[in-house]
Write a structure and sequence with these properties.
Elements (H helix, E strand, L loop, with lengths): L19 E7 L16 H9 L13 H10 L9 E2 L10 E2 L8 H7 L3 E6 L16 E4 L7 H13 L6 E7 L15 H17 L1
Parallel strand pairs: 1-6, 4-5, 4-6
Antiparallel strand pairs: 2-3
Length: about 210
């Protein structure tokens, strides 16, 4: 080692030793919705946008939630993942999923590095048994598939309240703004109904 070059000092940590990182995604969130025009209906989403770094050229790798989340967790495109038929009994039997894909996923890396990784699941197709998010230490599901934002946030806040001082990573996916745009009522044009669904998510972000 004495003949080797000096090792530079480690850079400053991005988060404190017991830091909490929360990643949340919102299903079918259009890029042009959070541009300031709907601040009255989506005040908390607007506040997040104003206080955050905005990536104006971000693109989803797929129009599908499952494939996009898999790309997020693995750093691979759809074509670089192994998709096979899921044969366990239940509502997902026959679905083409990544349960046999060997890719290393972000939650596993975090868990192995000493960070507690928790997945709050409203869309049950994102469960690790189907291949998505393999490596989470905990999976907490909403009462039903396509769970409501309020139910998801209730469970997220309850999990945070019982957390200790160790580092924590939480991932939440809100699915309220998915078609057929009736969760906020059936009155009005599809875009109006869509905005009302997003307002349900916005209210929970405020919590």
């Amino acid at each position: 080692r004495s003949r080797s070059a000096d090792v530079p000092a480690r850079p400053p940590r991005l988060a404190p030793p017991g830091g909490i990182v929360i990643v949340l995604t919102i299903d079918a969130l259009r890029a042009d919705v959070a541009d300031g025009r709907h601040a009255d209906q989506l005040p908390h989403l607007e506040a997040l946008r104003n206080e955050a770094i905005e990536f104006s050229r971000a693109r989803a790798p797929s129009p599908s939630t499952v494939t996009s989340v898999m790309s997020f967790f693995t750093g691979k495109y759809y074509s670089g993942l192994y998709w096979t038929e899921f044969n366990e009994e239940g509502r997902f039997k026959g679905s083409i999923m990544t349960h046999e894909d060997p890719s290393i996923q972000l939650p596993r890396l975090l868990s192995e590095g000493g960070v507690r990784a928790v997945h709050l699941i409203s869309l049950h197709g994102l469960a690790s048994k189907l291949g998505v998010g393999v490596g989470f230490d905990e999976e907490i599901r909403t009462r039903s598939d396509y769970g409501r934002a309020e139910d998801l946030m209730d469970r997220a806040l309850a999990r945070l309240e019982r957390h200790d001082d160790s580092p924590l990573f939480m991932y939440l996916h809100f699915v309220d703004s998915h078609a057929p745009y009736t969760r906020g009522g059936k009155r009005g044009a599809p875009y109006e109904r869509y905005l009302r669904e997003l307002a349900l998510v916005d209210r929970e972000l405020g919590r």
